[in-house]
């Protein structure tokens, strides 16, 4: 695929995402699909639409449909093996946005969605055993999906992290000729950029669990399918971890903190890295910029490692 085609994918999803968010904001207010302040965890001063995820998923889907129609290098079948389970994850999040579920049913459904993903070739293949491969794939997808959902706690944070991490995945996959991974990653990054136009502080629309689950699921898949040629699997997974450094750090920080305090790991609370930085005296916008910079450092290290090992 020519370099300018990747640019069209990125810019196309950014444009569609920006425009569709405007439309979805109107729909959200018309049908009361909003997040209202509650004085506890929802501290915004006014009601904010929470269906931003639906807008960016629509934008990404439109671009990918056009891409498969115009470009013979990417066929529909491998795309659907990835996209349909990701849409299923978004469906869980959308249901949870309006009818909150307990964590265990959500986890079980996500595990079920990994089955077609694994059968379609998205596998963690560090070991030869299919059983271990499947279990590691489940663990990775659950970890990244929930990590991205958990960092959706400050205006612009989840969108900014997904923009940086998926852009890094896209650029590395271009270096190794992985057309499908590069196209999906750049489409994801473009949709995140378009969404940030509306979600940056103060947010005019929220990602919602639907968008966070979709973002997280897709990042997990792309990190698995990013397979730099001639790079050992162990180094490959270090690269994947660096590309998702901030959400993984936040996930393990919160889990360790809650366990040490005797809390259930699924307990909602203001105990994430973004909240910690605010407690240290930073304002919300600055704390988000610090964490996005942290993610950018991880992506740059991953890129340098790839260029060194190739």
Task: Describe, in plain words, how this protein is organized in 3D.
- With 310 residues, the chain is an all-alpha fold.
- It has one domain (3-226).
- Helices cover 73% and strands 1% of the residues.
- The chain contains 12 helices and 2 strands, in the order H-E-E-H-H-H-H-H-H-H-H-H-H-H.
Layout of SSEs?
Layout: H1 3-30, E1 34-35, E2 48-49, H2 52-70, H3 76-98, H4 103-119, H5 130-150, H6 157-175, H7 179-199, H8 208-225, H9 233-243, H10 245-260, H11 273-279, H12 284-309
Helix pairs in contact: 1-2, 1-7, 2-7, 2-8, 3-4, 3-8, 4-5, 5-8, 5-10, 6-7, 6-8, 6-12, 7-8, 9-12, 11-12
Question: Can you tag this structure with a few keywords?
Answer:
two-stranded antiparallel ribbon, about 300 residues, globular, mainly alpha, 2 strands
What's a concise summary of this model?
The chain is mainly α and about 300 residues long. The chain is built from 12 helices and 2 strands, in the order αββααααααααααα.
What is the chain-wise order of helices and strands? HEEHHHHHHHHHHH
- DSSP strand (E) fraction? under 5%
Largest sheet: 2 strands, antiparallel
The first-to-last residue Cα distance is: 21 Å
- What do the pLDDT scores average to? 91
Rg over alpha carbons: 18 Å
Number of helices: 12
């Amino acid at each position: 695929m020519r370099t300018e085609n990747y640019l069209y994918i990125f810019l196309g999803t950014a444009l569609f995402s920006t425009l569709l968010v405007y439309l979805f904001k109107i729909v959200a207010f018309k049908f009361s699909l909003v997040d209202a302040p509650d004085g506890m965890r929802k501290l915004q001063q006014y009601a904010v639409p929470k269906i931003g995820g639906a807008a960016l998923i629509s934008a990404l889907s439109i671009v990918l449909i056009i891409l498969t129609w115009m470009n013979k290098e990417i066929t529909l079948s491998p795309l659907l093996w990835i996209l349909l389970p990701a849409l299923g994850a978004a469906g869980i999040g959308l249901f949870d946005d309006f009818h909150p579920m307990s964590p265990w049913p959500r986890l079980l459904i996500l595990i079920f969605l990994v089955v077609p993903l694994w059968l379609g070739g998205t596998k963690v293949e560090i070991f030869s055993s299919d059983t271990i491969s499947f279990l590691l794939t489940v663990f990775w997808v659950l970890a990244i999906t929930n990590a991205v959902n958990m960092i959706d706690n400050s205006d612009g944070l989840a969108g900014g992290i997904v923009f940086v991490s998926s852009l890094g995945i896209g650029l590395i996959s271009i270096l190794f000729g992985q057309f499908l991974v590069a196209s999906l990653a750049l489409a994801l990054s473009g949709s995140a950029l378009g969404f940030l136009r509306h979600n940056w502080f103060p947010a005019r629309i929220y990602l919602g669990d639907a968008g966070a689950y979709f973002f997280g699921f897709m990042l997990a898949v792309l990190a698995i399918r990013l397979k730099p040629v001639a790079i050992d699997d162990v180094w490959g997974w270090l690269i994947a971890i660096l590309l998702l450094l901030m959400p993984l750090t936040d996930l393990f920080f919160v889990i360790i903190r809650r366990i040490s305090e005797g809390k259930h790991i699924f307990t909602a609370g203001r105990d994430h890295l973004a909240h910690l930085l605010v407690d240290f005296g930073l304002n919300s916008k600055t704390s988000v910029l610090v964490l996005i910079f942290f993610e950018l450092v991880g992506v740059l290290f991953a890129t340098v490692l790839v260029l060194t090992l190739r």
